[in-house]
Amino acid sequence: MSTQTEIPSLSSLEYLPYLDDAGCISEDAQGKIGVYAIFNQEKVMQYVGYSRDVYLSLKQHLIRQPKNCYWVKIETITRPSRKILEDIASAWIKENGATPDGNDSQKAIWTEPINANPAMTEEEKAQYNQNDELGQIKIRKKVARRVEADIQQQLSDRGVTMNIRFNPKLKEKGLLDLK
Description:
By secondary structure, this protein is of the alpha+beta class.
């Protein structure tokens, strides 16, 4: 746990498995304020973030990038301070030697809701353009459910067993994010 004067080096922290043996993210980070670095299977840094609830943020990243979330390093702080969190995140990125794609060119896929609309088939696009607003909502929801099923399958293939619930209201817009 950090105080205001010390910034732990990334190398001083141990790699923690993203998922435990039961296929869940460790609840130790639940409700904790902190900084985290996410690594792929080869322990290459993918993203550095900070959050008021590290557990929820890790869960969001897992649904957005299931193939890139294998290892994590976490540093928690006792009091919320955006400056301390930003300083730690910046120091870790600098120590890494390069800005990870998740903090650069791929930031949106790590931090924004999943946009299912590009997954529309040509037939769905044609129907979408011929429908009124209610019909368009139904098509967006159908596409979102299909993308959701694909994500759930990827998570299952990874051995994830924890409950994943998507926000049903966002599906009307063709977006997927956790509830």
